[in-house]
Amino acid sequence: MQASRARLFKEYKEVQREKSVDPDIQLVCDDSNIFKWTALIKGPSETPYEGGVFQLAFAIPEQYPLLPPQVRFLTKIFHPNVHFKTGEICLDILKNAWSPAWTLQSVCRAIIALMAHPEPDSPLNCDSGNLLRSGDIRGYQSMARMYTRLAAMPKKG
Amino acid sequence: MESDYDTQDASDTESMEDDFYSEETVVRDGEDEGEDEGKYGFSDNESDDSDVIVSERLQQNYTVLDETDIRQRQEDDIRSLSMVLSTSRVHACLLLRHFNWSVSKVHEEWFADEESVRRAVGLLGKQVEMPNVAELLCGICFEVHPRTAMSSAACGHPFCDSCWRGYIGTAVTNGPGCLMLRCPDPSCSAAIGQDMIDMLAIDEDKQKYSHYLLRSFIENNRKTKWCPAPGCEFAIDFVMGSGSYDVSCNCSHSFCWNCTEEAHRPVECSTVAKWILKNSAESENMNWILANSKPCPKCKRPIEKNQGCMHITCTPPCKHEFCWLCLGSWIEHGERTGGFYACNRYEAAKEEGVYDESERRREMAKNSLERYTHYYERWATNQRSRQKALAQLHNIQTEKLEKLSKIQCQPESQLKFIIEAMLQVVECRRVLKWTYAYGYYLPEHEHAKRQFFEYLQGEAEAGLERLHQCAEKELRVYLEAEVPMKEFADFRVKLAGLTSVTRNYFQNLVQALESGLEDVGPNRQTNSSKSSSSKNISSKNSPGNSPKSSTTTNNFDNYWYCERCTFANPSSNQACEMCEHRRH
Ligand SMILES: [Zn+2]
Ligand SMILES: [Zn+2]
Ligand SMILES: [Zn+2]
Ligand SMILES: [Zn+2]
Ligand SMILES: [Zn+2]
Ligand SMILES: [Zn+2]
Ligand SMILES: [Zn+2]
């Protein structure tokens, strides 16, 4: 507990310092609880998520960083490896491939990479996975873009 | 050699009984001897028989290993590999674990492409030292520590000892995957071996790791398995492709090495699996069908009711609408009959006692159940008899033999024919038990095979009953009082003779079942017609009828049994009435 708190505090200071370094990621620690974080990440360019801003929620276990944080999308997203209802993410580094050398920042980077390179073979969103697997790239992209526009972009007017 | 018997304990004899039917012991004495019970000319062969048994034991196709043996073998493999590859003990261990403890596989892969094996296992060519500065940053806690308080794998990535302890502890808690642990740096695949564990982990984790390593040697090895008996810590090393799968552990548990169920030769593993599943599911299954499904009154397919409403619409294409309770057409139902959740037609009929709850359906289910019960009861009876015989054998070995030796003034070594008889009983009960599972799954329409099977089973069972009777009841007389030498000699000849005859019967049975009853020729058929086997189920269920008259409607030949739910369906049906499973 003490070790995880110390480690999270280091990450917190690092985030403050690096704020301007990675413009695609904005990590925010909960005011009252260092085990609760949120992040805003920018949809990667040349993907259907471009132009969108997606919010992630982190729940961090007491054994962190020996155990991975739990992360989910708060913003609705149409992606094969994200559960459409719960926002749960299927990503190996958040499960068995976790390394305690990863940080919340690097997790965000990995999620951005996942947005750009979906893995249709381990789908949490079957519709989306099926579209990609059947080769209907356009179908997938237009759905993903529609939800990006609906959920991840500031409303006009 | 004969005096060996005196010191033998129950577990030794257990291992003998399962060798009785190994190919080498099969002595084709000719079946005729079995028919002629007056001819007990076997006493001279006794010593030969025991020689066969003893030599059989020496060449058994498996070895029982205790923890010391396992550690020894593991250590030997690791040491010899590290010598051959001139690599460290730790690397040899990692390599063996990676290739499931197959020494030959490691050799093969290593000498074919050492580089790719190293990459896959995470073995670096040479040690990279941590940067040579006084203080280093730990990659896990992000704190700066003195270099002396940090460690690294062969890759040189530094982590503080406290973080290592946590890292290893988490991995060990997660299970045997800790045997494949890598450097915590995500970009690095350097393997973490037992030397690092021993240097950095807490004692409890070191022990757990070492335990996983030992278990892995058995569990990840194709040739070894743990004995499945509860609490037993022995493992069995099996010589693959060496015939019978039956093995006997030092804890006295006999089991099939292939499927780890109790020993079941000559019945196949798949039959045993089906049978065991059936025994666990049968009662529930039948009750469920009776309680939850009814045949559609129009198309007769089984319909499950899963909602409260009594208005049932049959599945397409039938779509017949009927009342679940009275099975009457729904057209006659509605407000008048009590709405959707009751049926006063049904209530009225039930009160009058006119209504007979789907008589035919019950009848059918009963037939299936009866057939199963027939086989199950016999299976279970033989199982119990075997347990009793085992206890008795133990009792004879530990006290009765000594007593008998005193009363009849015979050296114990001269009394081993009694032990042999009991061993034969125990083994035959086991075989006989499993033949009932076999019989249950032998298709009804294979008449010739069924007849042949029932003939062999009947002969074997009759022989076994005589032997068991003689070994159990007649023995008692000789335990009570001294009898004339001649009389005891006669008992010896009789019991040894029955043992031998029964062994022959069972050898025939085992061979026939193992060859799938293939040699059912015209001769066999004549044989079987002269036997009046008591186990012919059709004769049991239609008393008064000739067992072979397949024209009567009562006869089971007019039904086929659903593979899935065992329901007895009329032969005109192509799919099961209960579960719609197709007939094969
Ligand atoms: Zn550290
Ligand atoms: Zn490393
Ligand atoms: Zn055992
Ligand atoms: Zn088996
Ligand atoms: Zn119908
Ligand atoms: Zn009704
Ligand atoms: Zn069925």
UniProtKB/TrEMBL annotation, chain A:
Lineage: Eukaryota, Viridiplantae, Streptophyta, Embryophyta, Tracheophyta
GO terms classed as biological process: peroxisome organization
Signal sequence segment: none
SMART domains registered for this protein in UniProt: UBCc (SM00212)
Family to which this protein belongs: Belongs to the ubiquitin-conjugating enzyme family.
Name the UniProt record assigns to this protein: E2 ubiquitin-conjugating enzyme
InterPro entries, per database record: Ub_conjugating_enzyme, UBC, UBQ-conjugating_AS, UBQ-conjugating_enzyme/RWD
EC code(s) of this entry: 2.3.2.23
Domain of life the protein comes from: Eukaryota
Active site: 90
GO terms of molecular function: ATP binding; ubiquitin conjugating enzyme activity
Keywords: ATP-binding, Nucleotide-binding, Peroxisome biogenesis, Transferase, Ubl conjugation pathway
Keyword Nucleotide-binding: yes
Entries under Pfam families matching the protein: UQ_con (PF00179)
PROSITE patterns according to UniProt: UBC_1, UBC_2
Domain UBC core residue range list: 3-153
Top-rank EC class of the record's enzyme: transferase
TrEMBL record, chain B:
Pathway stated in the Swiss-Prot or TrEMBL entry: Protein modification; protein ubiquitination
Organism of derivation: Dendrobium nobile
Database matches in SMART domains: IBR (SM00647), ZnF_RBZ (SM00547)
Name this protein carries in UniProt: RanBP-type and C3HC4-type zinc finger-containing protein 1
Alphabetical UniProt keywords: Metal-binding, Repeat, Transferase, Ubl conjugation pathway, Zinc, Zinc-finger
UniProt keyword Transferase, yes or no: yes
Enzyme class: transferase
Renumbered residue ranges of the record's region Disordered: 1-50, 517-551
Ranges of biased composition (kind: Acidic residues): 1-22
Function text: Might act as an E3 ubiquitin-protein ligase, or as part of E3 complex, which accepts ubiquitin from specific E2 ubiquitin-conjugating enzymes and then transfers it to substrates.
Family to which this protein belongs: Belongs to the RBR family. Ariadne subfamily.
